[in-house]
Amino acid sequence: MPRYLGDDFILPQLTPNNTPWYTSGEITIQFCDDCGHAQHPPDEICYACHGSNLSFRAVDGTGTVESFARVHHPLHPALKEHVPYVIAIISIDGAPGCNAQGNVVNCGANDVAIGQKVRAVFEEAVDPQTETRLLIPQWEPAE
To answer: What is 42-61 written as a DSSP string?
Structure first.
């Protein structure tokens, strides 16, 4: 999939906690191995039991649009050719209480609705500084 907001738009800076999200090509969620709590974004401790026995697991890669914004005015010159676009908050199936932010792609900006089912698609990029292959999650309508 080509870069949705263009090749010149910024790339995420990888950390030990976000690398699985941006490189696996799956929707990976951090789970506590002690209490089973799912959390996103990932952290060094469990939000529920404060344990540190955490691991990443792939989930189905589907979800529901909980909220969204249609962007009509480019906030950065690199986005001028890409408006309007939609940024959404997605509740992730298989990870209760976990929401992710991303663009809704492969549909018109006016075709996105709260409650709409979506599935993950992955935008490929290579970080020019580290040469790491990124697979950035975006979302498209599931129907």
So the answer is: --SS-TTT----EEEEE--S
